[in-house]
Amino acid sequence: MEIFRRRRSRLGEPNLRRLPLGRVVGPGGLGPPGLPRSFGHRRLLLENDLSQALANGLDDFQLGVPLGEITSSYELFAGGTKVGGVGALPPDARMEYDRHRIYELPKSSIDDKHRVVLALRVWRSPISRSQEGGPTRGPFLIGHFDQLKTRALLSGIPYLVLIAIFATVGIYHLRLYAEHRNLVEYFWFGAFALDVGAYCLLRSQWKYDLSDNFILLKNLEYVAIYALPAIGIQFMASLYSRKIGPWLRTYQLSFVALAAVAGLTPDLRFNITTLWMTQIWVLPTIGYTGVVAFQEYRRGHPQAMLLTSTLFLATCLFDLAVDRNLAQGPQMIPVGMTVMIFSMAASLANRLIRTCRELEGLTDSLELRVTEKTAQLREHTEHLELKNLELEKAQESLREATLTDPLTTLRNRRFISEYLDYDIARVLRSYGPTRGKSASSEHRDLVFFMLDLDHFKDVNDQHGHDAGDRVLKDTA
Predict the structure, then answer these.
(1) Which residue from 88, 107, 109, 257 has the highest number of Cβ atoms inside 10 Å of its Cβ?
(2) Interatomic CA distance for residues 311 and 334, integer angstroms
(3) CA distance 340 to 338
(4) What span, in angstroms and rounded, lies between the C-alpha atoms of 204 and 196?
């Protein structure tokens, strides 16, 4: 019987082997009689392929075994010696089912026939969704310890890159909203991207670099996943300018309430026992997203992301099927989220570019209209100034006419009445003690003539008024 199947590692080294762990068998299987149903044992005798690996020189290095998710906690034994574990077994049981660990196998666990026996002692929590305790998903390999650590580090880098991208996208769009408060969809997209980044972080092994509190980290993961539908509905409504009705608003707030309860519970009992109901409850969100994307696509909306929305919904449905043991495969939601985030970012970027171009076009049009209006206003102003000048000249001519005798062109009595007192006062000031030294002497004096033509009446009587007028004009 072949215990291992060869699998080339990412480093190109054929020194990693897959452990055929499968499910852990409880009482009635490999476990001793009388063991509680929550316990199970699994024992592996690694002989054939291990012997070949040791013969190829692997005995010069430290062997290691990485273990992925095992429900709900376990202890690992190699050659009868405990080499580690995750969580704690009863009586002080503590579940920690999704933590990956890499264990060094002591050389003493390998016998003289190049054989090693690995044993798992597993405890399944009563609130676990799994019917049996044991391995669920993750790496189950054996090989060079340093190579396994390098592999684990490299396998976690894509998640770290995605987390950094989601955080950058979220913060950038929140900054855009802070500068342009009318772009509400940018705020909700930024919140959605940050929530997706938080969920990816809490689903990865990088979360244990932040805290070793498994209950806290797991509750925060439930908060992140429960908040996604509420934020997604708000983003879709803002993006497509749709009004959220009372029923949809109530449905949206139910996820907010679930997220709040998930974050406040002291353990995982509520979150685990109600997860299947929440998975069913989220199906209307998936349907709403698909229907809205299809309707907006039919309407020709430039931001209608039908293809990416369909892909994201497909990954959600696939992961729900995997979680309900209806299908098998890796977790695909991060892939769908990544595609959707990039598609949304590209769509919103195109929208921003289009808005900026429209704004530039409106600005150019406004500048052209302002230039035209300015030219028209300048023309009207020049015309008004010309009219005002003509009016001032007409007023000046009219005033001159009122102060001048039309026959003799000399100043008339009205002129004397208006200006005589002023001229006399000016002359008196020029002769006064405060007269300036630079005063002009040619305007210092005032001469007033009064002329009387003798026998002028006889001229009018004998020769007529026309002759009298000519006499007046010649005399003037």
Answers:
(1) 109
(2) 12
(3) 5
(4) 12
Spatial strand order in the sheet of 73-78: 39-46, 116-123, 73-78, 81-86
**Spatial distance between the Cα atoms of 99 and 160, rounded to a whole number of angstroms:** 17
Please give the model's pTM, rounded to 2 decimal places: 0.65
Helices (H) and strands (E) in the chain, counts: 13, 10
Residue 285 has pLDDT above 50, yes or no: yes
Structure tokens at 340: 């959707």
| d(C-alpha 412, C-alpha 316), whole Å | 106
In the CATH hierarchy, which fold is given to the domain comprising 17-149? Answer: Jelly Rolls (2.60.120)
CB burial of residue 156 (10 Å; 0-12, 13-18, 19+): middle
Residue 377: strand pairing partners: none
Any bridge partners for residue 104, and if so which?
64
Task: Taking the CA atoms of 347, 348, 350 and 355 in sequence, report the sign of the dihedral they define.
Answer: positive
Distance from C-alpha of 318 to C-alpha of 225, rounded to nearest angstrom = 16
Identity at 13, one-letter amino acid code: E
How many whole angstroms separate alpha carbon 94 and alpha carbon 215?
A: 10
Q: Which residues contact 116 (CB under 8 A, 6 or more apart)?
A: 46, 50, 63, 78, 79, 105, 109, 110
Distances (CA, A) of 39 to 28, 129, 422: 11, 15, 125
Q: Which one, of 152, 119, 154, lies nearest residue 19 by Cα?
A: 119
Q: Which residue has the higher pLDDT, 27 or 112?
A: 112
Residue 338: name the closest of 171, 164, 156 by CA: 164
The answer to whether 17 and 95 are in contact (CB under 8 A) is: no
The per-residue pLDDT for 322 is: 64
Alpha helices for 180-204 (secondary structure H) = 184-203
Residue 140, phi then psi, degrees to nearest 5:
-130, 90
Output the average pLDDT for the chain. Answer: 77
